[in-house]
Amino acid sequence: MILPEKQPTIQAVPQAAEAPHASRNAGTALAPEWFEHVAVNLSAAERRAATLVTRRTVKKAWQAAWLVRAITCIDLTTLSGDDTAGRVHRLCMKAKRPLAAELQAALGLQEERITVGAVCVYPTMVPHAVKALRGTGIPVASVATGFPAGLTPLPQRLAEIRYAVEAGAGEIDIVITREHVLTQNWRALYDELRAMREACGQAHMKAILATGDLATLRNVYRASMVACQAGADFIKTSTGKEAVNAILPVGLTMVRAIRDYQALSGQVVGFKPAGGMRTAKDALNWLILMKEELGTAWTMPDRFRLGASSMLGDIERQLEHFATGRYSASHRHALA
């Protein structure tokens, strides 16, 4: 059995009956007074991020439990120019069974239904993913709004959202106009995000801030707060295409904005780091950040996602080492 007699800090697997989303963020009116006075100390943020992952460690069965939880929070993604229906189908099969049956049995979890958090694709691939995942309860997420640059005209970006939703996407990963942040035009950013939120309808909106393009942590905090006020259900670090993607000081700044927004509005917003994460250790570091800063509820897939498909292979290798004492070759854990 993977779990020791004393339960780990977080559950190994969410209950199968749980919905992928617990609530929606209705947003608020634009309130610059909530964020314009806030300063972010870069060296302090870097120091806090660095010490977070050294102050708490998880070993043996506890580490295995955390890694299984990480799997349930992964948005398994393919965003390549040569995507095909076949590739998306294979990815969805992996999403439904991320761990080999024999490994799951060796971990004592053979009775558990373990899946990833969602499958994320381009809008034209949504119908293929919806077909492959029908009846599984795994959401299909779609990037939209001129991903990754987001510089197409707003009517076209909104039309792309509606196309993905009509095709069956339950989550939409939108990108903001970075210029609005760099010029401090909060009204334009808010209005853009509200229009996107309306276009999403019942689909959950994940707002990609592309933090590597925003220049300062103060801008990251302010953009995060505006996205929350505009009704984003998740805020996400990166498209994965920027020079700098998900790093812990940026994540710390964004989750502090989520915490402040909840204190001021009473509403919950999720968080998704994306890009640049490849190892099981990366997954553990982000889970530690979430638990320390926001609490155990933010280590569940309805409030936390990992945008890092390549991470899954290393997590499988670490779990196999825990179960058997041996490391397997990487090619034995191919994604698709």
Any overview of this molecule?
Helices cover 43% and strands 8% of the residues. The chain has helices spanning 42-55, 60-72, 85-96, 101-106, 126-133, 154-167, 178-182, 186-200, 217-229, 248-265, 280-293, 311-324, and strands spanning 75-77, 118-121, 140-143, 171-175, 204-208, 234-236, 270-272. The chain has 336 residues and is an alpha/beta fold. The radius of gyration is 19 Å and the shape is globular. The two termini are 28 Å apart. The chain contains twelve helices and seven strands. α9 packs parallel to α10 (248-265). The chain has one domain (34-331): TIM Barrel. It has a seven-stranded parallel β-sheet.
Query: What structural class do helix, strand and pairing data support?
Result: alpha/beta
State the helicity in percent bands.
Answer: 40-55%
* CATH homologous superfamily title: Aldolase class I
Shape: globular
Order of helices and strands: HHEHHEHEHEHHEHEHEHH
Q: Helix tally?
A: 12
Average pLDDT, rounded to a whole number, is: 91
What do we call the CATH topology?
A: TIM Barrel
- What is the architecture at the second tier of CATH? Alpha-Beta Barrel
Taking the sheet with the most strands, its summary is:
7 strands, parallel
Q: How many independent structural domains?
A: 1
CATH hierarchy class name: Alpha Beta
Total beta strand runs: 7
- The proportion of residues in beta strands is 5-15%
* End-to-end C-alpha gap: 28 Å
Largest sheet strand order: 1-2-3-4-5-6-7
Query: What Rg, in angstroms, do the CA atoms define?
Result: 19 Å
